[in-house]
Amino acid sequence: MTTIRVDVVSAEAEIFSGEATMVVATGEMGELGITPRHAPLITRLKPGHVDVLLENGERQQFYVSGGILEVQPQVVTVLADTAARASDLDEAAAQRAMNEAREALANRSDAIELAEAQARLTQALAQLQALERLRKNLKH
Amino acid sequence: MASGREIKTKIKSTQNMRKVTRALEMVSAAKIRRAQDLMRASRPYARLMRKVIAHVAQASTDFGHPFLIERANVARVGYIVVSTDRGLCGGLNSNMFRRLLPAIGEWQRQGVQVDVVAIGQKAISFFRRIKGVNLVGTVSHLGEKPKLERLVGVIKVMMDAYTANGLDRVFLTYSDFVNTMTQTPTIDALLPLPLVAAEMEAHQDAGESAYAGVRLEVGHEWDYLYEPDAQTVLEHVLGRYIESVVYQATLENLASEHAARMVAMKAASDNANKVIDTLTLTYNKARQAAITQEISEIVGGAAAV
């Protein structure tokens, strides 16, 4: 029997990797059953389970809270999300990040020029290196 | 010569300092392992994500997503700068800023505006003092286990600006963890993707190739079946790709932070040891001198009588 390679990963761990005869997942447009030599397909996953049917008839089931399903003729890749996400939540997060920046800028005390900052950095690093050399010399 | 008591207090305070640096060193030594584990755990996702993106780039799509199109005129660029929250980690952040500043300076000379998103307290306090750089988003205190959700906000700020034609290039800056002794300040192109592909090809070694293990039928044009449609799916996939890259960078940076702190604190403890040794020697000499003087005074006094 022909098989298809399946990789299931989330951002925090590798979940499954191996050969299978069929993969069943819940795509955005409905349930998908993928067998070897399926046409290339890419879709978003709905929260639900991903079933992987192994060669020995065993069935492995994973729950995903969303993600991406990519199908190539010999490879199926499932990139699972670790947490449920919604666009309005993302929007709120972006707003928060911008507000934080504005706050950080609001109480800036002494603005300095780019060149000056660079000079100061170089100086600090030179000091660090000098200390390092001094330390080495002390050893001998 | 300093009196015995003075030297003694100095020794005492140096010993206290050594206690602190030792503790910091040991804490970092413990944390570095977990940080490295985290970094490794998220690598498969990043690798597969790159693979999918490589496929997407090869597919002949009718829909041109802005992320895939390189704009000829550059009027505004964005930098996502990943730094640590706390100091006492040697030259880690300074080294990175020092690499970054000439790059920013170069853009400014060309009349290009520079937007910065700062991740980590050090980058925030650094960039809020720099004139001519727009700080557009910040996030800090991600902790020992950075969560992707915390990063979503700042990433979206940049992506939205890029999509809305506000930015023409986006770069990512962080300290790449090579090993405990070496952390390299790195500036990577993030958007547009053709720029990234060019960069990848420029320094691609066989083992770490993004295209390794990709079996594609080359020679004929193909495209995906998109469900529901190309735009929705590509937007989603590309968005997730960027998030994964930035997330990976924060993990690298975290491991680098602990490694750098461990090394810096070890050096500090060694230095404290040396100072203590020298001071103890001086103290003993002073004590000896005092005793000798006392004896000779007594002897001299007795002889006079």
Give a quick precis of the structure.
Chain A has about 140 residues and is an alpha+beta fold.
Structure explained in plain terms:
- The complex is a heterodimer of chains A (140) and B (305).
- Chain A has helices at 87-106, 114-139, and strands at 4-10, 13-20, 22-27, 30-34, 41-45, 48-53, 59-64, 67-72, 75-80.
- With 140 residues, chain A is an alpha+beta fold.
- Chain A folds into two domains: 4-80, ATP Synthase, domain 1 (Sandwich), CATH 2.60.15.10; 113-140.
- In chain A, the strands form two sheets. Chain A has a five-stranded mixed β-sheet with strand order 2-1-9-8-5, with no helix packed on it. In chain A, strands 4-3-6-7 form a four-stranded antiparallel β-sheet, with no helix packed on it.
- Chain B is an alpha/beta fold and 305 residues long.
- Chain B has a five-stranded mixed β-sheet, with helices on both faces.
- In chain B, helix 5 (148-163) crosses helix 7 (230-304).
- The two termini of chain B are 31 Å apart.
- In chain B, strand 2 (113-119), helix 4 and strand 3 (133-139) form a beta-alpha-beta unit.
- Chain B has a single domain (32-203, 212-260), classed as Pyruvate Kinase, Chain: A, domain 1, CATH 3.40.1380.
- Classes of the chains: A alpha+beta (140), B alpha/beta (305).
- At the A-B interface, strand 1, strand 5, strand 8, strand 9 and helix 1 of A face helix 2, helix 3, helix 4, strand 3 and helix 5 of B.
- Strand 5 of chain A pairs parallel with strand 6 of chain B.
